[in-house]
Amino acid sequence: MSENDKIYIFDTTLRDGEQSPGASMNMQEKFRLAQQLVKLRVDVIEAGFPVASRGDFDCVKNIADHIKGVQIAGLARCNVKDIDTAWEALKNGDNPRIHTFLATSDIHLKYKLKMSRDQVLDLAVASVKHAASYTPNVEFSAEDASRSDLDFVCKVFGAVIDAGAKVLNYPDTTGYALPDEFGEHIRYLMNNIPNIEKAMLSVHCHNDLGLAVANSLAAVNNGARQVECTINGLGERAGNTAMEELVMAIRTRADRMNVHTDIATEHIHPSSRLVTIITGMPVQPNKAIVGANAFAHESGIHQDGMLKERTTYEIMNPCDIGLTKGNLVLGKHSGRHALKDRIVTMGYSLSEEDLSRVFERFKELADVKKEMFDEDLEAILMDVVLRIPEEYELMTLGVMSGSKVMPAAAVRLKIDNKEVEKAAIGIGPIDATFRAIADLTKTSSKLLYFAVSSITGGTDAQGEVMVRIEGDGKIVIGQGSDPDIITAAAKAYLNGLNRLVYLKKEQSKAGK
Ligand code: KIV
Ligand code: ZN
Predict the structure, then answer these.
(1) ∠444-448-451 over CA atoms, to 5°?
(2) Which domain does 464 fall in, by range?
(3) Count of C-beta atoms within a 10 Å radius of residue 353
(4) Within-domain flag for 284
(5) Residue with more model confidence, 77 or 404
(6) Number of folded domains that form the chain
(7) Neighbours of 226 (CB within 10 A)
(8) Across residues 429-436, what is the average pLDDT?
(9) pTM
(10) What's the CATH number where 446 sits?
(11) What span, in angstroms and rounded, lies between the C-alpha atoms of 265 and 130?
């Protein structure tokens, strides 16, 4: 396949993805995710919207300064301050991209911008020229393009190409388009923008009608060569095009698509898990590619077919997305070297210090759990790799519960290097545990969400708990895993409280 058959993957998990309600990420988490996106071999990472806040600016700058070998983009509205701020954050990156946008639909012009079409055209051209004075790598997006007059979009795109834009993005901002219609729009743009050969056409689809991936594929079939997408389909409202679905559709149906991406698909599953853990937003079990059931075969007829020949019911090989589910890893007698080998095979590289932490946790778990799977190891890895300073540390937990007993919990924490203990009763053992923790930490956060799932099969499986809590007007997630689900819940709750403390410290450092 030629270079013209390559589909550029522009990942916006850190920008549009972060606009998912409740999906905010701290600087360390964004950096970790950006490292993962490099492993996935995306072409562009949209790291954030630098003018939005000091925190956003710092995150984009940190990524542009330190993550190399990939283009880093920053979003900017069409005004001088946004573009200057974006450049300030991006300027040390490898081939940094300013992504500037302005709406083109009459609805947006009339009600939001209160501008005429001529004014929009002039502002788009002036902004692209300003961005191009910093870098040749400028992308222009026509917000709400799919509900705009197509000839007007052609006019704007033609003019911004002359002003220096190298990528023209056609977003279905409201997720309104249908696949055949969206494909026709892209064909129309390809045929009616006279200087289109000087730029690349891109699409950015939202999933309000569940059509983001289908619309993106239709666009590719009609000439788009960049697709903007997010891991797990995160994003504003119903989300964006899910990268894993788009990439695997292109790969699995190469016979009809005749294009390719450079994505290292074996990193898809670990990347999806990382995003779930960082954002606290689990994917639904029946989600294509990365859902827990995506490769599970339940009916007897299917299982029989699978035993005879995998391809009877599987169109993709789970290994191709890095799914090592059910892989029995090591046991309690395994050494540090074997553990390190396994971690490298799973696509992680750790410092010696982090490896020691993982090894210690691995041994502790292997002592109580007979069989250790990759998923168990992954849960430990996530904890260690994403750890934040622990203001509150769980030392011990004892609970009493059952039918016809008043649930009670005794919790011992380490706070400021001092051990403190408290007992509490509650409606259930988790309620009692959380009450004791709230008392000891003198916090009064509100629990917004609580979910428990099992990391692997078997009654000795580790429980994984996700919580979302609100405190001091901030919402954070917390995550914990343990073979004992009440302990996992306590760890998740404390992880959330530690994140609140961390966030407060980060914000006061940034002078907010
Ligand atoms: O959905 C949208 O239109 C966007 C643009 C800023 C590209 O996110
Ligand atoms: Zn969007």
Answers:
(1) 120
(2) 392-511
(3) 9
(4) no
(5) 77
(6) 4
(7) 23
(8) 97
(9) 0.86
(10) 3.30.160.270
(11) 37
